[in-house]
Amino acid sequence: MVETNINFQLGPGAEEIGLAVMIKDLIAQNLEQNPHKVSDFVKLNIGVGLVVTDVDIEMTMAFSKGTLTVHPGISDQALIVIRTEADIVMAMSNVKIKFGLPYYFDETGREIIQAMRNGGLKVKGMILHLPSLIRLSRVMSVHP
């Protein structure tokens, strides 16, 4: 891995959730390929719930200063909860980052904005935890 203090793990039962494994691996690979993202990852200290409505999956990504543990279900510690469909989750991982912020002015970005407008993407805790949400976007994006 990029640094010895970086750790990725699946909580009990999460190994049976394909999306949980995929997201853990996606973030690990992003950090391996883009070491500049490690500082954002280490600064994340928050639970992020993900509800994927069209495939009936709920999971929590628990970030704790260099460790990501993915758990099945939505934990009480999830201060951000993202509720959307699988294709929007994939679009979120494909959003470009420009000037340190997610870029919503291309096709992928417009798809995400449209989903927010029509209720297909809901983010509870977005305003209160905006810095963490931006860091999460940078860590999850497959773009450098």
Which stretches of 5+ consecutive residues score pLDDT under 50? none
E-strand count: 8
The strands making up the biggest β-sheet line up spatially as 1-4-3-2-5-8
Mean pLDDT: 95
- Order of helix and strand elements from N to C terminus: EHHEEEEHEEHEH
Binned strand content: 25-35%
Radius of gyration over all CA atoms, rounded: 14 Å
Q: Which fold name fills CATH's third level, the topology?
A: Nonspecific Lipid-transfer Protein, Chain A
Domain count: the total is: 1
- Helix/strand/pairing category: alpha/beta
Q: How would you name the CATH homologous superfamily?
A: SCP2 sterol-binding domain
Silhouette: globular
Kindly describe this structure.
This protein has one domain (7-140): SCP2 sterol-binding domain (Nonspecific Lipid-transfer Protein, Chain A), CATH 3.30.1050. It has 144 residues and is α/β, with parallel strands linked by helices. It has helices at residues 18-33, 38-43, 86-93, 107-117, 130-140, and strands spanning 7-10, 47-52, 57-63, 67-72, 78-84, 96-98, 101-103, 122-124. It is built from five helices and eight strands, in the order βααββββαββαβα. The longest helix is centred in the first third of the chain and has 16 residues, at 18-33. The relative contact order is 0.18.
